[in-house]
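re: ur question from earlier - yeah i can do the single chain one, its not a big deal. heres the input i used so u can compare w yours
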Amino acid sequence: MSEKIVVGYDDSEASKNALAFAVDLAKARGCAVVVAHVLEWSPYSFLTPEELAERHARRKEELERAEEALLAPVRSELSAAGVEVETTSRYGHIAETLATIATETGAKQLIVGRTGQSGLSSRIFGSVAGTLAQVSTVPVTIVP
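and the output i got, formated as tokens:
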């Protein structure tokens, strides 16, 4: 089993930069890349059981669309380039879920793109990169 690098991917320019960095690193080290897409999930405790069931059904559809539209093309491209690649898509708190994926896959490193958000909003709401730096059990690389 080869060493793994997890990269957070959402098709933004920042995540494309992170993916390119991860691929270069993986090729240099002979590593596999795990491309992870996380859709933010916030539980709503005030929903009825019927509303929760409907929401879970939509969640499944959204994950399937993410797999088809975002991850399948990346998986094909990286495989064609000779990179060992896995993909996963999940719902959850983005930073915590990426950290969990890194732990579950036995990854040695986690790579994310920086969105450039700064100032008051990032101090109030935090950032994925900042939270990852605090919760991850593996080194985190933030790509500009």
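The domain at 4-143 is CATH 3.40.50.620 (Rossmann fold). not sure if urs matches, ping me
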